Amino acid sequence: MSNADSRTISEHRRARYEYFVLETLEAGLVLTGTEVKSLRMGKVTMSDAWIRIEDGQAALLQLHIAPYALGNRYNHDPLRPRPLLLHKAEIRRLYGTIKQDGLSLIPLRLYWKGQHAKLEFGLCRGKKLHDKREAIAGRDARREMERAVKGHGR
């Protein structure tokens, strides 16, 4: 996907630190008019968001979209559950995978695709403390190698 096709609204950067992302998927969101205006202004927080599948429907929970400043009585609840637009077969497959393997659905990125807001989410498994320490150690080692290579050219 090129940058001309999509513009990132918000990204859940900590998700890749907290979870192993096994698979990524894309879904549309059901939004109200004032939510879309708030998204265009970038007033969204994804840090606590997660996806639940219940009664054959997928819903995005705890995504905070700030109320639109000029929305008056048409404003929305900032934390309301937002339905995701997925095919029934995808929902069934995800539900079975989550129940069987104990995985989670975590939103990774919210972006515009044309004029539609899309959500990229991942089928994730939580990391243990030692996994996080390994990630930090690897990142530090890469940084040290880059410094050594950069300093060697002087």
List descriptors.
single chain; 4 helices; Small Protein B, Chain: A; 154 residues; 9 strands; 36% strand; two-stranded antiparallel sheet; alpha+beta
What would you note in describing this structure?
The chain is α+β, with helices and mostly antiparallel strands. 32% of the residues lie in helices and 36% in strands. The chain contains four helices and nine strands, in the order βαβαβββββαββα. The protein has helices at 15-18, 33-40, 88-101, 129-152; strands spanning 6-11, 19-29, 44-45, 50-54, 57-61, 64-65, 82-85, 104-113, 116-126. The strands form two sheets. Strands 1-8-9-2-7-5-4 form a seven-stranded antiparallel β-sheet. Strands 3-6 form a two-stranded antiparallel ribbon. The longest helix has 24 residues, at 129-152. The radius of gyration is 19 Å and the shape is globular. The relative contact order is 0.23. The mean pLDDT is 89.
Give the neighbour order of strands across the main sheet.
1-8-9-2-7-5-4
Q: What does the average pLDDT come to?
A: 89
Helicity level, as a percent range?
Answer: 25-40%
Please work out how many helical segments DSSP would assign. 4
Number of individual domains: 1
Q: Would you identify the regions where 5 or more consecutive residues have pLDDT less than 50?
A: none
CATH fold node name: Small Protein B, Chain: A
Shape: globular
**Main sheet?**
7 strands, antiparallel
CATH superfamily: Small protein B
Describe the structure in brief.
The protein is an alpha+beta fold.
